[in-house]
Amino acid sequence: MSQSREQESAAGQAGTLNVVMAQIDFLVGDIPGNTRLVIESTRRAVQDHGADVVVFPELCLTGYPPEDLLLRPSLDLRLDEALETLLAAALPAAIVIGTPWREGGLLYNAALVIADGEVRGRYYKQCPPNYQVFDEKRYFAAGSEICLTAIKGIPVGITVCEDIWRDGPVEAAAAAGAKLILNLNASPYDIDKQARRKTLLERKARENQVSIVYVNLVGGQDELVFDGGSMVFDHSGEQAMEAPQFTEGLYPVTFLVEHHCQPLSQPALPEPSLEQNVYQALVLGVRDYVNKNGFKSVVLGLSGGIDSAVTLAVAVDALGPERVRAVMMPFRYTSSMSLEDAESQAQALNVHYDVFSIEPMYDSFMETLAAPFEGTSPDTTEENLQARLRGVLLMSLSNKFGALVLTTGNKSEMAVGYSTLYGDMAGGFDVLKDVPKTLVFRLARYRNTVSAVIPERVITRPPSAELAPDQKDEDSLPDYDALDRILNLYVERDYSADAIVAEGFERADVERVARLVDINEYKRRQAPIGVRITERGFGKDRRYPITNKWKIGK
């Protein structure tokens, strides 16, 4: 966070405003705890950074998204108590916080400016979003007025998240004389999201000739991950600083206020690779889900395949090896290579490792089912039984030791139903739920650049569920490169089957994949949640009816 000598000299000659961006991990529903975080963070920001104003994320008092907690009758009472606590705290700097606020019988997504024990400004979000994972119109009315407040004599405009993505709120504040815009955000992560934010902020700052402070929430909340990456852009559209993604902290920036409100530039952060970025999101999502929900540890089935290998690495990086248990559950079709590679990875990551054969249990079940199955041929029923026996073992360990079961299915498999209900889908959190198979391979390669913990054979061998002799995933699916591209078009971009064929894919493959996606919606409704990393994941994003007669094609 260094400044040049010229900047230090200029700062000494002109008035300054010290803004601290509080990129904090708040807990949904913990209004008293979040209020304490605001108070403690403000005092640290003043002590460590000489803050004049501390800016917090959107809805920081309730956490984001609070969903139907906003409908609870005691919401207003709890928020009133929080506000009284903040006003009585005699905070040594101005603060800008996000909170629900009720006026005239309507609830607003609000930002409050608090200074000297008083509410000095109040802003209601003008553009509550209602797309993708957002459903704010279910809860919030839209505001219509600007909020222009003076901080150290500087006219400052306040906006909230989506307001900056639309034309109107920033433009109105700038036209009213704002030299600085403080934008409070709870913007969830997806691949390339930070680049889109930067493009937007550059344009908004330049077109309106106003500096912008963009403060974003950090942390995991169910399937969403908020990546932080708070930023400052000057009035010409130049980026002045960027806080690291996925990292809590108080990030200061000093503004010179002689003419424009000009931020002093800070060194640019190294640009992360896509694989590093996604891996960090998965680690944060797992860590916060496990810790915020009070689980002591996690347990997962380690098969010797790439999905469970990456899941295990993420779990260890999120929680430490002492809180992770890996279980190999071999059957007669499990190869010696799988046994060797699973043990090798468990040793490399230093986790508790068990081997429990499911052979005796399988034989017992088949003996019981011999009469009703008489005269039938083996099929997927026997394959699914293997997966379900493994699920029973893992859930038993979960119940006995308070460990969350991590499932290991990737997005490609979840899309086409290449998974077993109450088997490998049995568990509480699916780390790779929104990660396409081709990206799983890339994540494995990336993790091994940090330290080689995933055996090379796990990455290079043909993927197999090992539920039948000599089984390979691509015996029943298109190759993963083609499959993932078809799925991207069909699931994330809503292309029709005909439109996907026009992109150069075989019609038979496209129609088969589309049909598998459609008929397996019932499975996905029963699947555990998992970290969202794409613009359209299964869950909050994509809501399709299970029972329908929509024809694929046009």
Automatic annotation (TrEMBL):
Binding, ATP: G301, L302, S303, G304, G305, I306, D307, S308, T408
Pathway per the UniProt entry: Cofactor biosynthesis; NAD(+) biosynthesis; NAD(+) from deamido-NAD(+) (L-Gln route): step 1/1
Keyword vocabulary terms for this entry: ATP-binding, Ligase, NAD, Nucleotide-binding
UniProt-annotated catalytic positions: E58 (proton acceptor), E58 (proton acceptor), K125 (for glutaminase activity), C161 (nucleophile)
Annotated TM spans: none
InterPro entries referenced in this protein's UniProt entry, alphabetically: C-N_Hydrolase (IPR003010), C-N_Hydrolase_sf (IPR036526), Gln-dep_NAD_synthase (IPR014445), NAD/GMP_synthase (IPR022310), NAD_synthase (IPR003694), Nitrilase/CN_hydratase_CS (IPR000132), Rossmann-like_a/b/a_fold (IPR014729)
Pfam families per UniProt: CN_hydrolase (PF00795), NAD_synthase (PF02540)
Domain CN hydrolase: 17-257
Main enzyme class: ligase
Positions that bind deamido-NAD(+): N384, E413, K523
Signal peptide: none
Binding site for L-glutamine: Y131, S187, K193
Family that this chain belongs to: Belongs to the NAD synthetase family.
Protein purpose: Catalyzes the ATP-dependent amidation of deamido-NAD to form NAD. Uses L-glutamine as a nitrogen source.
PANTHER family: GLUTAMINE-DEPENDENT NAD(+) SYNTHETASE (PTHR23090:SF9), NH 3 /GLUTAMINE-DEPENDENT NAD + SYNTHETASE (PTHR23090)
Protein's UniProt name: Glutamine-dependent NAD(+) synthetase
Species the sequence originates in: Marinobacter xestospongiae
Encoding gene (name): nadE
